[in-house]
Amino acid sequence: MGSKNKLKRFKENETFGNVFQPTREEVVSGAFPLKGRWNADFFKNENPLILELGCGKGEYSVGLAEKYPDRNFVGIDIKGARFWRGAKTAVEDGMHNVAFVRTQIELIDHVFGENEVDEIWITFPDPQIKYKRTKHRMTNSEFLQLYNKILKPDGIMNLKTDSEFMHGYTLGVLHGEGHEVLYANHNVYNNHGAPEEVTGIQTFYEKQYLEIDKAITYIRFKIK
């Protein structure tokens, strides 16, 4: 994407009522006003709150929001030019149950309050295969404890990925630490019984993977 195009998208993001782009300082200092108040001050209802981490173009957040109008969705990504697409679609379609925040995943406990979130989706994260250290892997122990801070006690986690490596790595972490695996499948499109929101919503890249018969894996779990 050209820098001109990116700038245009950044500018347009600023006009969207469903996009929040706080500075790192604002987030870390505790000045982000919606922390702990997403439903009260933004969505203005008591519906379940669901996050998509590393939401990319926001296709999954928007797809889920369309499917479940009685739930609230927030897509998180550090690249605002990416989720511009999802934000724009939501604005054009008059959707009031989806928003986007431009921030780092490591800071989500500064953006959401303790026990504020009902469910988290991680869709097609970078598996970080090349790195011996696992610190950037989005399902490592540190990240799981971070998610646990903002999840309700019975909150649900979802991991959907095209990476067999990430699928296996995550199952290893979950079983090793005694977390509760509710459902795991290394090829959701070839098996009956996969939840409808897993196979019913497809991202741009997911469609490409399916065209070349690349298996899509999925894990649904609870953090202990």
What structural class results from the helix and strand content?
alpha/beta
The total count of helices amounts to 10
Q: Identify the CATH architecture of the largest domain.
A: 3-Layer(aba) Sandwich
Question: What is the CATH domain class of the largest domain?
Answer: Alpha Beta
Distance between the first and last residues' Cα: 41 Å
Sheet with the most strands?
8 strands, mixed
CATH superfamily of the largest domain: Vaccinia Virus protein VP39
Proportion of residues in β-strands: 15-25%
Q: How many strands in all?
A: 8
* Fraction of helical residues: 25-40%
Strand arrangement in the largest pleated sheet:
1-4-3-2-5-6-8-7
Q: What coarse outline follows from CA principal-axis ratios?
A: globular
Q: From the structure provided, what is the oligomeric state, counting identical versus distinct chains?
A: single chain
What is the string of helix and strand elements?
A: HEHHEHEHEHEHEHEHHE
Number of domains: 2
Rg from alpha-carbon coordinates: 17 Å
Q: What is the average per-residue confidence, as pLDDT, rounded to a whole number? A: 94
Contiguous low-pLDDT stretches (5 residues minimum) are none
* CATH topology-level name of the largest domain: Rossmann fold
Strand and helix layout:
Blueprint: H1 3-15, E1 19-20, H2 24-28, H3 38-43, E2 49-53, H4 59-67, E3 72-77, H5 80-92, E4 98-102, H6 108-111, E5 117-123, H7 141-150, E6 151-161, H8 164-177, E7 180-185, H9 196-199, H10 204-211, E8 217-222
Parallel strand pairs: 1-4, 2-3, 2-5, 3-4, 5-6
Antiparallel strand pairs: 6-8, 7-8
Helix pairs in contact: 1-5
